[in-house]
Structure formats: structure tokens, C-alpha cells
């Protein structure tokens, strides 16, 4: 079995790569150029060059591949890219697509990113390929985006009001994806991945304060303020608008449900936020 990881340098993709290496799996990664793969520390023969915009390059990259992991950065061309991946898989003979989606994927969601997940999930289901959809809640590791203000001010700022979220560790998300890539029995399955409890961000701050022995507070900010801060940090306008939008959608309180899919697939409990916080605290002391 040969696995190809698409989106290998992203948050989940790089963790999928790390875990596939640990397991000694037969896999390659797709990158736009060899320099992009440097941080993954792979052998040259594991690196394939291609472009989501170019079906022919994807088809060549999938030569000899049977299973594909697909994670994409949020982008207005996501639907076209997923269509290109599906086409390339059919031409190349790759059989099973493990796609990263998002919890609550729905065409009626109040977030363009979530709606796009629903639309591309539907494309995968209708493709005729074997598939596994991995739909996680937000990640514990998103807190690293607030690392500087937590270190310097003891504060982190998000437009999530007092909503609870059953956020999940990215390592658990990757582990479920890896299991679907290397084992049988995951065909046609959709996994909803959460952590073991739903917490408000104020409650997360309390846990962080306790384990780090440092006063850390969550400050709720308006959606527009979050959008402008992301733009000021250099994020492109489309992404800043739609990331602020998805955070505001999470703030509506629809993402507090806890699932057991991590434990069901992996045979062990999901990593708790407290366990993550103990690790994260090493970065802020």
C-alpha cells in the first residue's frame, strides 16, 4: 500500500506525516516544490511535486498510490481543487480518499468555510471512490496563535463570547486519519472528532492559569476587531474575513457536543485539554 499525503506541510498534514513515519508506513507527500518539504525531513523518493490547480501533475504524483490523505487550507478555490483531486485519483487508479473536513459541515451553516466543507464532502461521497471523512471540532493547538499575547500580557483575544466548544487535540485528529489510511474497515465512514469535554474559553484560561501558575485571561472581542487584527498581521483579506466569520459561527454555541469517535477508532481516550495545557504551559512560563 502506498499513501500520498496532500497538504503535508499544514497543521494536520505535518502531524499525519510524523505519525506515518513513526509507524514505518509506505508513504509520499505532495508539495509544490522540493523546498516546501524540507521541514518534513523525508527521503527524496518520498517527495512528489504537483499543484492542486493542475490535474495532470496530480495524476502523475499519484502513480502507484492506493490511498490519499487530503487537507486543504481554506481558499475560495477549494471546490475546484477537490474536484481535481477526485479526477486525478480516478485516472491514476488511487482507490481510497481520507478527507479532512469540519464538525458541523452543513450547507446551511453561517460560515462559508463550513459550507464549503459540506459541499466538498458531498463531492467525495458522490465520486464513486472509497472514502473516509474526518470532521473535527477546532484544535487545542489553535492557542499557539495567541502565544505571544499570552506570554507578554497573560491574555488571549478571540471573538467566541462565552460559547462552549468540545475542542480536540490535533494529534488525535491525525491519529484517526492515519488509522483510516493504514487499516481496513473505515470505508464509507464519517468520524466526528471532539475532545472529552466542552469548555468555554474562560474555562480554558482557568485551566491554563492553574497548570502554568500564571494569571491568564480570555478576552472576548467583536468579530470585526478579530478580522482587522488578522489583516493587520498580514493575512489576506478573503481568509481574514472568513476566519472571523467561522469564529463568530462557533460563538453561536453549536459546537459543544462531545463524541466518542476518537476513542472508538483509536481504542484509547481522547487527549484532555488539561493534558494539552500542561504541555502548552512550557511555552509560556
Question: How would you describe what is shown here?
Answer:
The protein has 285 residues and is an alpha/beta fold. Helix content is 41%, strand content 16%. It contains eleven helices and eleven strands. The strands form three sheets. It has a seven-stranded parallel β-sheet, with helices on both faces. Strand 5, helix 4 (112-125) and strand 6 (130-136) form a beta-alpha-beta unit. The longest helix has 15 residues, at 78-92. The termini are far apart.
Layout of helices and strands:
Blueprint: E1 3-6, H1 11-22, E2 27-31, E3 47-49, H2 55-61, E4 67-70, H3 78-92, E5 96-100, H4 112-125, E6 130-136, H5 147-153, E7 155-158, E8 164-165, H6 170-182, E9 189-193, E10 199-200, H7 201-212, E11 217-220, H8 223-232, H9 237-250, H10 261-266, H11 273-280
Parallel strand pairs: 1-2, 1-4, 2-3, 4-5, 5-6, 6-9, 7-11
Antiparallel strand pairs: 8-10
Helix pairs in contact: 1-6, 2-3, 3-4, 7-11, 8-9
In a few lines, what is going on in this structure?
Helix content is 41%, strand content 16%.
Order of helices and strands: EHEEHEHEHEHEEHEEHEHHHH
Shape: globular
Which bin fits the share of residues in helices?
40-55%
The largest beta-sheet arranges its strands as 3-2-1-4-5-6-9
Number of strands: 11
End-to-end Cα distance = 44 Å
Mean pLDDT value: 96
**Biggest sheet layout:** 7 strands, parallel
Q: Beta-sheet strand percentage?
A: 15-25%
Keywords:
285 residues; two-stranded parallel sheet; single chain; 41% helix; alpha/beta; seven-stranded parallel β-sheet
